[in-house]
Amino acid sequence: MNFDIDYLRSQLNDVQYQAVLGYDGPQLLLAGAGSGKTRVLTYKLASLVRNRGVAPHQVLAVTFTNKAAREMKTRVAKILETPCSFPWLGTFHSVCARILRMYAEHLGYTSSFTIYDRDDQKRLVKKILKQAGDEKIKPESVIYNISNFKNNYISFDGAAAMASGGYDLRIAKYYSQYQKGLKANNAMDFDDLIFLTISLLKQQEEVRERFKNSVRYVLIDEFQDTNKAQFQLIQLLLGPHNNITVVGDDDQSIYGWRGAEVTNILNFGDYFSNLNTVKMEQNYRSTKNILGVASSVIKHNRERHNKTIWTANDDGEKIVLLENENENQEAEKIIRQLKNDDTFSNGETAIFYRTNAQSRVLEDQLRRHNIPYMVLGGIRFYDRKEVKDVLAYLHVLVNPKDSVSFGRIINTPRRGIGNKTIEMFTDMALQNNTTLFEAFCTVENAYNGTAAEKKIASFLKIYRALEAAVQQESSLAEKVDAVIELSGYHAFLKESGIEDDRDRLENVAEFVAAAADFENRNPGKGLAEFLQEISLYTQEDEVKVRQSSVTLMTVHSAKGLEFSRVFLTGLEDGLFPLIRDADNADIEEERRLFYVAVTRAEKKLVLSFATSRRTWGNAVFADPSRFINEIEPHFLTRETGMARVTAPKTGRHYEPVEDQYIPNYEEECEGPAFFQGQHVQHKLFGMGTILKTEGFGESARLVIRFQDGNPKKMIPKFAKLTVLD
DNA sequence: TTCAAAGTTGTTTTT
DNA sequence: CAACTTTGAA
Ligand SMILES: Nc1ncnc2c1ncn2[C@@H]1O[C@H](COP(=O)(O)OP(=O)(O)OP(=O)(O)O)[C@@H](O)[C@H]1O
């Protein structure tokens, strides 16, 4: 159909168009920010299906985040005007998880394996370190080392073989024990998803051939941030035709600290003799001034491919540089700048920072100004303790070998089964070479046993009930709800009386709603699939209201996104570039990070720094970032005016709040007003006196001393309080 | 076994 | 500074 070719021409420039048509053989698109790399990949995918008769399941397309994958799916469906499913479009991790679910048995796992997150990994490593009696080494650094090995596809034997010195040997030993522990638990960590898929493809010739034959085209976005293991994986999946398109920008490589190898993209030609390299030089995203700032800074890097980049867009506004005395003034001035635009909360404004901790001051100030915002990063919904507790129950029910999750649920909620009992049964299990669960089962019917045994027997009774509930023919949400109910978790939260537990109960209810939602979106899929989706969830996936708020995030999470207005904050030497250890600082990667941040902006860019910043309680002074000095001055307008700002009250001003804030103007004025010294009545705690008030309406928080003498924090929105005065 | 109080860590960045 | 972990008393 000619229509499609004309359509392609109308949507792409010449170079992009040629890149899309270069279907066969290896192709590398090395191009600067905003040049349409992702766009080319998207149109290529659509065109392969439409013009080349390639079936969706024959394309392996890898994106950096799940969100990017979803967007690509949506775009392609729109271009093709038909919804179609691409089973092999996703992140490396989700694609691998899918492969492993199909073939886990070949590796000695079952297909219902659990994916361990950071927290689970830490629990397992801690257990190993405790057994080894090694308290000196931090679990985090063990995890970090193991992860490095896996990113380079080095097994524990390999790690032991290349060890030099006692420390290396210890790490190798823990790596080996950790890996065996994971396998015994029928669990994999994030890096295993890649690692074990490589192992699978290496070991199982039929599986490998199956993929090589069925995958006709491979497309990879953000190739500059792939690691060695991922590169190996691609080589194993790629058929003899070498139909592979990789896309990236070496200047945007910002995950070196996690094993990403820029050389994957820079030396790509070494692996494919007939490589077709395409360079795209026109930027469609940003104004000339924004691009000027980006280029003038990035050219200070020595290890890079020099690239021309230009734009037909306007000069646009000059870049504003805000100079501030401290972080509060910075936040205040940003908000003032932001309010210059009356469309500041239409979802097209973003505030970036180098470290997550910096978001707090900005949040405080935004809330104070009643500006709706959302924060990416920090604690995700599924990372909350109460949600993870419920998840642990579900994980055990899907994968009974998951001892880490099992350890989490034994005494949650409190059942009087403490450390000592657990230790005793762990020893017993170790001696009989069984699992802790099996050790428990030996006293399942011992009603005449010790107090501890009775408690275990009653726990097992609960466990059996949970098993039965999950087997039932019922909806996913009903099953989840039954687990929360039967485990006693619901009652525990409801009756605890601690104010925070009321919030937790709401989150648990929200989790049941999430299960219902999952079932809606994926009819026919069950608990195991639900758990996998959650395990692979990323920050970006949290459904939040970008449309009507200001978005706050780290520069790392901003990769690949674009915003009309961008505020880049905390530009102080030592913070951005972040220098923790002067000898090992990677300034070039920091500079690339700066480049990524700046090139997210379409129309307006504001840079800011603070001469002093409060860190761990005391003010730290710093010079403006060296990157600011690298900007050619004619792009900038400096704003020095040290306007007085109202410093927030010192002390406890910050309360942990939802990572999303939408002011509710009506309710702000409603509800009874509380004051210090007022007497109130609470359903559970009886009469009390208000010691302290904070905030108003929905966001109000109170500290109340009840009859028992203990002050308690309460939120009147949830706590049913009756005013007595 | 459990809770509260004292002590101690940490801030990169995340799929 | 604040979140987390360990310690000690009941
Ligand atoms: N030929 C074109 N015509 C119109 N708009 C274009 C064209 N090419 C790219 N764009 C637009 O430019 C912006 C950047 O494109 P895209 O996100 O694909 O670039 P990228 O190279 O992947 O960027 P980055 O590497 O910075 O993430 C998008 O808004 C895209 O729609």
Please, could you describe this protein's structure?
The strands form five sheets. Strands 11, 12, 13, 14, 15, 16, 17, 18 and 19 form a nine-stranded mixed sheet that branches. A six-stranded parallel sheet has the order 3-2-6-7-1-8. The chain is α/β, with parallel strands linked by helices and 725 residues long. The chain has 29 helices and 24 strands. The chain is globular, with a radius of gyration of 28 Å. α14 (288-298) links the parallel β9 and β10. The protein binds adenosine-5'-triphosphate. Adenosine-5'-triphosphate is lined by residues 12-13, 16, 31, 33-39, 249, 252, 284-285, 560, 562, 599. It binds a DNA duplex (15 and 10 nucleotides) through α5, α10, α19 and α26.
List low-confidence stretches. 643-657, 664-672, 682-686, 717-722
The count of strands amounts to 24
| Rg over C-alpha atoms, rounded to the nearest angstrom | 28 Å
Name the ligand types: adenosine-5'-triphosphate
Describe the oligomeric state of these chains in a short phrase.
single chain
Looking at this protein, list some descriptive labels:
globular, alpha/beta, six-stranded parallel sheet, DNA-binding, 725 residues, binds adenosine-5'-triphosphate
Structure, briefly:
This protein is an alpha/beta fold.
Secondary structure layout plus pairing:
Layout: H1 2-11, H2 14-21, E1 27-30, H3 37-52, E2 59-62, H4 66-80, E3 89-90, H5 92-103, E4 114-116, H6 118-131, H7 139-151, H8 156-161, H9 166-184, E5 187-189, H10 190-203, H11 205-214, E6 217-220, H12 228-237, E7 244-248, H13 263-266, E8 276-278, E9 282-283, H14 288-298, E10 310-311, E11 319-326, H15 327-340, E12 349-353, H16 359-368, E13 373-375, H17 385-398, H18 403-409, H19 419-432, H20 436-441, H21 451-471, H22 476-486, H23 489-496, H24 499-521, H25 527-535, E14 550-554, H26 555-558, E15 563-568, H27 587-598, E16 601-615, E17 618-621, H28 626-630, E18 636-639, E19 660-661, H29 665-669, E20 679-682, E21 686-694, E22 701-706, E23 711-714, E24 721-723
Parallel strand pairs: 1-7, 1-8, 2-3, 2-6, 4-5, 6-7, 9-10, 11-16, 11-18, 12-14, 12-15, 13-14, 15-16
Antiparallel strand pairs: 13-19, 16-17, 20-21, 20-24, 21-22, 22-23
The structure holds a DNA duplex (15 and 10 nucleotides).
